[in-house]
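Re: weekly structure request thread

Next one in the queue (271 aa):
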Amino acid sequence: MKSKILTKILFVFLFSALAFFAACSSSDEKDDLTDTDTVSDEDFSGDAEQGDADHNPAEDADTTPDNGDSADDSDKPADNTDTTGDTDTADDTDSGSTDDTDTTGDTGTPDESDTDFEKAAEGCTMIEVPTITMSGYPDEINGYFSPAMGGNAIDIIKILFSGGGLKEGTYALGTGMNETYAQCQQCVMVWVDAEYGEAKEYYFQTAGTLKIMKIAGEGDAKRTNGNIKNLILKRAEDNVNYVFVPNGECVAAKFVEWETITDDPSTPGND
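Done, posted below.
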């Protein structure tokens, strides 16, 4: 009887011991499952980031830039090394087809004075004068022009210098002393149908710029080179005082040039 009782007691003791051991083992397993640092970072030699919580070696091999940057400085399409900017072919100096270095003016390209001339010459007969190369007098130059304005007689343009007006320089026509025939020092006239020292029609300067560029020789052998730009002349009553005809016609020439200084030593003024 005692033997059966002792056997029961021993069985209960062993069962309790096994139950206690199983409970302790279950508690340790729960601790292991919740522990986030049971494996040391040193066990992952491929992980380059210390203290990495997920211990994923594949992440450390990722070359994608940090901070969510989808493109780093080298991926920019244009940076400080690009050629856009200072190397462009258009800058402040390309202001257009005309600037301070252009040749607008006497070279034939229209400028502001040419525009004024075109307005002032509206309604006038435009003439063209070939370069004048002959002159019988130092103070008078005569040339021909086209188209013909009158009948069969010749049409001439006359340039006179008086009262000390034969000097190198630039002079305004139709203003100051050059406003009237009585006082002009640089005088320009047009004669239409000229014969025997007279003409059918006379014209006298009202505008233009005359330039004497060079003078050679002395006295009666004196010769000159020069030109007239934007010349306008108005109809006059006669060749005595050149009084303008009221509402009279006008004649205009864009450019007139004379060169009576030549390379021929036999011509007076060229030696």
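The mean pLDDT is 74. The two ends are 173 Å apart (CA to CA).
Next request, please.
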